[in-house]
Amino acid sequence: MSERNMSKNHISKDKIPTKDIQKNAVSKDRKQKAAKNGEESPKKSGTAMYRIMAALWMVLCAVLLVRIWSLNHTIESLKDKIGNLTRIVMEQRDRLEKLAETSDAGPDNSPGQGEKPGPGDAGREGTEPHERKQAEGQENSLQDGNPQTDVAAANGQGIAGTAEQDAAHKVYLTFDDGPSESTQEILDILDRYGVKATFFVVGREGSQAEENLRKIVEAGHTLGMHSYTHKYDEIYASVEDFAADFEKEQAYLLEVTGVESTIYRFPGGSSNTVSEIDMREFAEYLDSQGVRFFDWNISSGDGGSFLVPVEMLIENCTAAVKDHGTSVVLMHDAAGKTTTREALPIIIETIQAMDDTVLLPITDDTLPVQHIQWKEEK
User: Per the domain annotation, does 111 fall within a domain?
Assistant: First the structure.
């Protein structure tokens, strides 16, 4: 072969394509083809997928937030429905009380011993034992000086006994479950309006509780018993167990305040459905000790675990006052009952504005409101 031909057909080693160059060329060629066909590169495809996932996550979060808002709205709606049902129960209770008064009321239209509470009120404490640790009032005649005159002056009604006899409508505000962190605030409100009330207390010990018990007595309010332990299964296990608890409570209050309480409110009321022993047996025991028990014929409705709106509390405590000669109003002295304290001033103002109506503490002259008929009428 001639040199000329060899030179013409010879390829330099530097000009021979390497494998890497070949791969790059193939890759470049594929990209160009993909671009022509509208396909994305793997890197761009991964970025797009990430964006899609992020968008889906944001949409899910938005849906979740809307769902949470919807559930909150549903809860609020249920609360309103519960409030309306509570109002209906109270109205039905008042109607039953009116029927009871028609048959049992005395000449002054006062409810007798056989008066029954309406549905949802009389047994409410019995069905919620942990919500109820109640307090009742001691006669002001056991205090120093002339407490009846002081009580009357505070209410602007003359002598308390005379006010009870003359007023067409007598209202007794009672506070259960104390003493508590709320006791001082309740006392301040009552003092602001010159009103004396009745506190049904349990055997709560400690320096603060004892101080509040003394303040109740010193302010001229009535102090009563509502058991020492407020433990239904122990108190109502037998008459002997009930008596032991009663004696401990009465002795404790006497030691702390110097007052021997002579009025009592049963845990759950005398119509509670917890006791397996006939409640008349416990009533007879109290009578043998010279102690009277008081139930209620108007309930604020604040005994449950949820807060009752202020407006409803005002309505519950005042709407039926004119229907009774004697109204015993049930409220609660407990730290968690914030709306009760908010409603109290308006409740007092509303009742004070009523004609022939007087706010009083329970005294020896007070006609008992009792849910059960436990002795023969004399």
Answer: no
Angstrom CA distances, 246 to 2, 224, 260, stand at 136, 11, 12
In which element (H, E) is residue 49 found? Answer: helix 42-104
pLDDT surpassing 80 at residue 31: no
pLDDT in tens, 47-65: 888 888 888 888 888 888 8
- pLDDT by residue (tens digit) across 220-251? 999 999 999 999 999 999 999 999 999 999 99
Tokens representing 290? 């010279």
Phi-psi region of 145 (alpha: psi -120 to 50; beta: other; left: phi over 0): left
pLDDT tens profile 280-289? 999 999 999 9
Q: Are 248 and 255 in contact (CB under 8 A)?
A: no
pLDDT value at residue 36: 57
Calpha distance 146→318 (Å, rounded)? 30
- Say how far apart CA 34 and CA 38 lie, in whole Å: 6
Asked whether 244 and 278 are in contact (CB, 8 A), the reply is no
Cα torsion 46, 47, 52, 56: sign? positive
Number of domains in the chain: 2
Q: Provide the residue range defining the domain that includes 47.
A: 18-106
What residue has token string 């109002």?
Answer: 87
* Contact present, 343 and 313 (Cβ < 8 Å): yes
Distance CA 261, CA 198 (A): 12
- Please give the model's pTM, rounded to 2 decimal places: 0.61
Binning the chain into helix, strand and coil, the percentages to the nearest 5 are 55, 10, 40
Which pLDDT does position 103 carry in this prediction?
42
Structure-token match 């160009």, residue found: 32
CATH of the domain at 344: 3.20.20.370
Residues 175 and 294 in one domain: yes
| Same-domain status, 149 and 58 | no
- The answer on 36 and 168 residing in a single domain is no
C-alpha 62: how far from chain center: 35
Would you say residue 236 lies in a domain? yes
pLDDT at 166 over 80: no
Q: What pLDDT is stored for residue 167 in this prediction?
A: 81
